[in-house]
Amino acid sequence: MTQPLLELVDLHAVADDASILRGVNLRVYEGEVHALMGPNGAGKSTLANVVMGHPGYRVTAGQILLRGQDVGSWSPDERARAGVFLAFQYPESISGVSVIQFLRQAIAARKNLSELSVLEVRLNLTEWMDRLGIDGAFAERYLNDGFSGGERKRNEVLQMALLEPVVALLDETDSGLDIDALRVVARGVTTVRERHPTMGVVVVTHYVKLLDEIQPNYVHVFVDGRIVHTGGSELAERIERDGYDAWRSVSA
Ligand SMILES: Nc1ncnc2c1ncn2[C@@H]1O[C@H](COP(=O)(O)OP(=O)(O)OP(=O)(O)O)[C@@H](O)[C@H]1O
Ligand SMILES: [Mg+2]
């Protein structure tokens, strides 16, 4: 059996002494897509942040393994360089930094290059923008400044495509997104996976529609800080129909 790209072992984490993650176990192997679904406040975004190494959370027990290596003590930067990618639920705007400047820095960091030729990045970027159907002028805009929901998503997918992560964590819980923006994510993930078939994906979503297109290998029900049930894509339809009541009692 090959090694998982990402393995979470009995992961517990707190923020401000409040216990949020209470024993998460998850294994993501090469090429797999895992969906996390669960009620508001269950801890899904926290899980993504903790895996990325967000300083606002403290791991109190358990392990985060990247290709078997314990990254628990690594900084977010080190994890990003090692290939963990997190697309935020609410990406912030960074004034004065254009999309292409940001991507160039991010790629240089990930690929451990102190300098990356502007031309090289631009060529790669142009190819991906073509593939993803993104307008050329987009690269010159300031990051997330006045971006529509769909444009934010395009930017996320573009980052994922160019950074070639080992594992991509996508937090797509945002209820403000319309169906077109979700489709950007779904198509983007599919396109990037065609090019990088080994990439592992963990997608957090409330939308079964997104999963129809992304086709996860596993759907996990996340309640009260842990995974309480795992199934295939049929599970997503059951959740959409019946909600999470059946599992709330399981975890109580
Ligand atoms: N930095 C923090 N400090 C204190 N409490 C926090 C912090 N981050 C998250 N929490 C709390 O942890 C719980 C889980 O939050 P989280 O955002 O992870 O939920 P979620 O499953 O992503 O919900 P949603 O589906 O609404 O996005 C919530 O009660 C939240 O208030
Ligand atoms: Mg969330």
Description:
This protein has a single domain (6-95, 148-251), classed as Rossmann fold. Helix content is 38%, strand content 25%. The chain has nine helices and ten strands. It has helices at 44-52, 76-81, 99-110, 118-131, 149-163, 179-195, 208-214, 234-242, 245-251, and strands spanning 6-15, 18-28, 33-37, 58-66, 69-70, 84-87, 167-171, 200-204, 218-223, 226-231. It has a six-stranded mixed beta sheet with strand order 6-7-8-3-9-10, sandwiched between helices. Strands 2-1-4-5 form a four-stranded antiparallel beta sheet, covered by helices on one side. Helix 3 runs parallel beside helix 5 (149-163), helix 5 runs parallel beside helix 6 (179-195) and helix 6 (179-195) runs parallel beside helix 7. The two termini are 35 Å apart. Residues 15-16, 18, 20, 38, 40-46, 56, 173 line the site of adenosine-5'-triphosphate. The site of magnesium ion has 5 residues, from helix 1.
